[in-house]
Amino acid sequence: MKKTALVVGGGQTLGAYLCHGLAEDGYRVAVADLNGQNADAIAAEINAKHGEGSAIGVAVDATKEASVVTMTKQVDDAFGRIDLLVYSAGVAKAAKIDSFPLDAWQLSLDVNLTGYFLCAREAAKVMIRENNGGRIIQINSKSGKVGSKHNSGYSAAKFGGVGLTQSLALDLAEHNITVHSLMLGNLLKSPMFQSLIPQYAAKLGVPEAEVEQLYIDKVPLKAGCDYEDVLNVLKFYASDKAAYCTGQSINITGGQVMF
């Protein structure tokens, strides 16, 4: 029987790319997103390419417990198993600490950390029941290993994700469920990064057109992080080849972060 991947935040950008990549790798894919129409659209694309029943779209607010429980039941009812959870939902707002709004701080914690906790908890229940092992992989950031100027809410939540990943790995090892965080470098072409360019330009005191190159110059390999870089590492840690690895925070940063 084909394995099932649940990708939370799978309705757009990086998450959608990962959904397509996992489908290419033979997974049935549950595309979950706050925007249910986007989730349905990505699922329809996968079904058109790989055959009906290859994917479903699910609307979910990962910050709300009842919504996550409902999402998990929908996936369980459709596929009867969850072998891989990818938590790709995320949000960021850049502001200096003396003007950082409390609602932006709370939203960052809710989406980047609490949502990860809720989705991992509910997916783990299905994995434990099915007794086939499993994989839980959080899409994290280098900001979860080093502080990020004017990004205190995002960085704090991502640091928390590393601690949660390690704790989940300890809790779930007896069930042969492994857990990892992927620590991404700057996804320069992503809508999230592009939306922050005006704030970064103001922070750095440079024209907006120069922001991307400044970030590239910080990377030893002199390139931003691409979606394909993330997919390649994700597929390895989701595979049996990484069965003896758990609780790791894996850098995909071009050498910008090395611990």
Automatic annotation (TrEMBL):
The question of whether Oxidoreductase is a record keyword is answered with yes
Q: Which family does it belong to?
A: Belongs to the short-chain dehydrogenases/reductases (SDR) family.
Keywords of the record, alphabetical order, are: Oxidoreductase
Enzyme Commission designation: 1.1.1.140
Q: Quote any Pfam family the record assigns.
A: adh_short
Q: Which GO terms describe its molecular function?
A: sorbitol-6-phosphate 2-dehydrogenase activity
- Read off the NCBIfam families from this record: PRK12384.1
| Record has Oxidoreductase as a keyword | yes
For this entry, the protein name equals Sorbitol-6-phosphate 2-dehydrogenase
